[in-house]
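Morning run. Coffee first, then this:
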Amino acid sequence: MSKTSLVKANNFDRTITYALLILLSLVFILPFVWLVSTSLKPESDAVAFPPALFPNEVKWDNYAKVFELVPFGRFYLNTIIITSCSVIGTILSSSIVAYGFARISAKGKNFWFVMLLATMMLPSQVTMIPVYLIFSRLHWINTFLPLIVPAFMGSAFFIFLLRQFFKTIPRELEDAAIIDGCSTFGIFAKIILPLSGPAITTVAILSFMWSWNDFMSPLIYLNDQVKFTLAIGLQLFNGVQNSLWGPGMAASSMVIAPLVVLFFLAQRFFIEGIALSGIKG
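And here it is:
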């Protein structure tokens, strides 16, 4: 095949690839665009047939009505508190454990790492009742503690992710630090963590998303409405808003917005962290 033919073939393949990516992007973006559009529509436009993608009249009152029907601001604050503490706890605990598995030599280390990974195959429904009984004995029910404290115990998936990344960092840096008199924790804090920005960002994003969207745990442990999170509050709002499409979509938009903004701000680090974590096993 000539060079010209090869270039044409590559251009054709690239065009097909971009066309498919654009088509799939539109398929995934359309529901989100429809959500935001409906949140700005009057009720008559929201239920009109045939439906229109864009509103004839922008109605910002739908967002204000969300805060009138339920204490949505309080739900937001509760979710921010729980999510922030969970992200901090997950990063601290998972990174320390992952550093131990990746860098510190100890008898039986691989066995315990396999045991850790085995916990990922245990469904959360199996441990739901025993864990609830433990928190009940500790008198933590109807508090934020059952939603925050487990994050400080580490996560098997994040420990595995960070361990894989830590193993890609050259050991020569660690050896040089040891010669200079740096302690084990000093190596972790001053060398490993600063070089692990993409992996730490990946853990932070995933942890944020899981905690922000968590529905089951708040449903089990929180009883008072004033302590509800957004996931529970959204269900409460759907029960009291009498099938009003505009305010319902406005509430959903406000729940989704932080996740979308966070991902677009940190997507470069997120993709880099996922890619680099699988280089070395």
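DSSP finds 14 helices and no strands in the chain. Good start to the day.
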